[in-house]
Specification:
Blueprint lengths: L25 H17 L1 H10 L15 H23 L12 H8 L7 H4 L2
Helix pairs in contact: 1-2, 1-3
Protein name: G patch domain-containing protein TGH
């Protein structure tokens, strides 16, 4: 069976593939968009498993270069860009709350540790 592999090494490329209009079949459009979202979220293994599991299902021929493949490539790129943007927001601190640095004193309080007694006080 011949199929066109997707370029997974270039998943966050700056240059998008050409924008492709969706298939006229709305069910195929929704299937392609759902699979693209899941592959962007779960990775290439999900795509490989979907391809293998649905070899005999003509609706999934877009995974093997068939009807809807170009639209799938476009949607997959778009979904990966969305995920990349969300990851950047996490790293920029827009979503994660700021984290305070912990000091030795605050760590000791959290763990219930008692401060050291100075050696000079022990021998008095």
């Amino acid at each position: 069976m011949n199929f066109l592999p997707l370029d997974i090494n270039n998943k966050f490329a700056d240059t998008p593939p050409p924008e492709i209009p969706p298939p006229q079949d709305n069910n195929l459009k929704l299937l392609i968009e759902g699979v693209a979202t899941l592959v962007a979220r779960c990775g290439k293994l999900f795509e490989d498993l979907s391809r293998e599991k649905n070899q005999s299902n003509s609706l999934f021929s877009f995974l093997n270069g068939g009807n809807g493949h170009d639209y799938y490539s476009w949607k997959l790129w778009e979904e990966r860009q969305k995920r990349n943007d969300k990851d950047k927001q996490h790293l920029d601190g827009k979503i994660f709350p700021s984290v305070q640095k912990i000091t030795a004193e605050s760590r000791g309080k959290i763990l219930g540790e008692k401060p050291w007694i100075e050696a000079s006080k022990c021998y008095m």
